[in-house]
Specification:
Order of helices and strands: HEEEEEEHEEEE
Number of domains: 2
CATH superfamily of the largest domain: Immunoglobulins
Distance between the termini: 110 Å
Number of strands: 10
Bound molecules: calcium ion
Strand order of the largest sheet: 2-8-7-4-5
CATH architecture of the largest domain: Sandwich
Largest sheet: 5 strands, mixed
Helix content: 10-25%
Strand content: 25-35%
Number of helices: 2
Radius of gyration: 28 Å
Oligomer: single chain
CATH topology of the largest domain: Immunoglobulin-like
Length: about 190
C-alpha cells in the first residue's frame, strides 16, 4: 500500500467521522426542544381523568366509578392557576342540572404532558344526586367540566362524561316498611 493511498483513506475516514459527530450533535440539540414543545406547547395546557377506587395516579380515565371517585389533573401550566370544576347531571339521569362547583389549584409546575400529575381531588356526589333517578345498573350519568387558565391568558376547558353509583345505604337492622321501604328499628 503506497503512502499516498493510505493518506487518502485516512482523510476520507476522518471526514465521515466528522459528519457523524456533527449529525449526532445536531440531533442531541434538537431532541430537548422537541420534547419540551411536545409537553408544553404555547397556550393553556392540561387534561383531566376520572379515577375510581382503588385511587391511583396512572393517567387512565375510568368512566364507571363508585360513589367516591377522584378527578386527576395532569399537564397543566405553572402559575397562580386554579381550575374550576363543575359537575352536572346528564341524561338519562337528569337534564344538565348543576350538582357541584369546586376550585382546585393546578399551577404547581410547568406543563409536563400526560403523566405530570398536578392535583387529585376526591368527590362523592351522593347527596347532590339523591333527587335524580339512578339507572339500576349504571347509576347516575354525570358530566365533568374543568376550565383552567394557563399560559398566554388562554383557558383550557376539558370534559369527561361518566357514571357514578350512589353509595348504598347500610343494611336495615330493624323492619322494612313494605310500602315506603323505610327502615324501622324494632
Ligand atoms: Ca404541571
Amino acid at each position: 500500500m503506497s503512502s499516498t493511498f493510505r493518506n487518502k483513506r485516512a482523510s476520507r475516514g476522518s471526514i465521515i467521522t466528522g459528519a457523524l459527530v456533527a449529525g449526532v450533535a445536531a440531533l442531541s440539540l434538537l431532541a430537548p426542544s422537541i420534547g419540551a414543545a411536545g409537553n408544553n406547547p404555547p397556550g393553556a395546557n392540561g387534561t383531566v381523568k376520572v379515577d375510581g377506587v382503588v385511587f391511583d395516579t396512572a393517567p387512565d380515565n375510568q368512566p364507571h366509578v363508585g360513589c367516591s371517585f377522584q378527578v386527576d389533573f395532569y399537564g397543566f401550566d405553572q402559575g397562580a392557576y386554579n381550575a374550576t370544576v363543575d359537575f352536572a347531571v346528564q341524561p338519562p339521569s337528569g337534564k344538565f342540572a348543576p350538582l357541584l362547583t369546586d376550585s382546585v389549584f393546578i399551577g404547581q409546575d410547568a406543563a409536563g404532558g400526560g403523566t405530570d400529575l398536578d392535583a387529585e381531588r376526591t368527590y362523592d356526589l351522593t347527596s347532590q344526586l339523591a333527587a335524580f333517578d339512578a339507572h339500576p345498573k349504571q347509576g347516575y350519568h354525570v358530566k365533568l367540566t374543568v376550565s383552567a387558565p394557563g399560559a398566554d391568558g388562554k383557558i383550557a376547558t376539558k370534559h369527561k362524561v361518566f357514571w357514578t353509583n350512589g353509595c348504598v345505604a347500610p343494611p336495615c337492622d330493624g323492619e322494612i316498611d313494605p310500602y315506603t321501604g323505610a327502615c324501622y328499628k324494632s
